[in-house]
Amino acid sequence: MPLAGLLVLLLAGAGPAGAGGAPPEHTITSAVRAFGEEGSLAVAVARQRVRATEGSIRAIEASTARRAAYGSDNGPAAARPLPTASLVKLFMAEDILTRARAGSVVLSAGERDLLRDMIRRSDDPAASALWVRFDGTRMVRAVADRYDLSGTGPPPAEIPGQWGQAITTARDVARFLALLPVVAHPDDAETLLRWMREATPAAADGFDQRFGLFGTLPGEPAVKQGWMCCVDGQRHLHSVAVLGTRVVVLLSEVPRSVGYGTARAALTAAGAAVAAGTGSPGGR
């Protein structure tokens, strides 16, 4: 198939990131305005790529997708590297599933359960065990290379094992989720998205995960939440979601003096602004 024809198939039906609702730029502006003055908010929206064919065309398809524009964001804020907190668990899960499918690692039933809990319940001990077992630094670097994530990397060398201090950008997370069905094996992509759709109201440590986009978007979005305190005196709360084929990423940073309650309320207000502009969910 000619490359030009493949690109048409790949993007067919994708449309602008905000199709079916408010334009993406309006959604981004509304989210930033709703977040308020408590700190800074990075926003990115995208639409997941559609796999054109199966089999040998996959490598060309993935390469074409990586070169395509992924969506819209709020400029420098969306390109600014921030600590991932628990969002790094998405990168870890994708890489472990990819390596297991290739046969380079063998996943036990228990390790697969850890993967699921790491995503659904944001289980930190599960993530720590998998980080050590499968070399977390390697995982983050491999995903950044595979998805062309220029602002994503492992924690600084002086803090090995502190996986929450890996860095990423709103733009990179949106790109990762938009390309997931094309770059990853489709079964692995669906597994990860299913675990995200099964996110529990309370995390493994008891933290209420219902903030940001979780609990504000209609339907059954696939979500992943992140929170941590504190890096360089800053508190971070993040929320990402895939609703149909629509991807939304909210990464927030507030001073340590701003408590979790206030930070959660601000991010949830931003999530509600996004929900107001989503319109009907995109098709799967």
Automatic annotation (TrEMBL):
Residues 1-19 form the signal peptide. InterPro entries: Beta-lactam/transpept-like, Beta-lactam_cat. It comes from the Bacteria. Residues 112-201 form the Beta-lactamase class A catalytic domain. The keyword Ribonucleoprotein does not apply. Keywords: Signal. GO terms for biological process: beta-lactam antibiotic catabolic process. The keyword Signal applies. Pfam families: Beta-lactamase2. GO terms for molecular function: beta-lactamase activity. This is Beta-lactamase class A catalytic domain-containing protein. The lineage of its organism: Bacteria, Bacillati, Actinomycetota, Actinomycetes, Geodermatophilales.
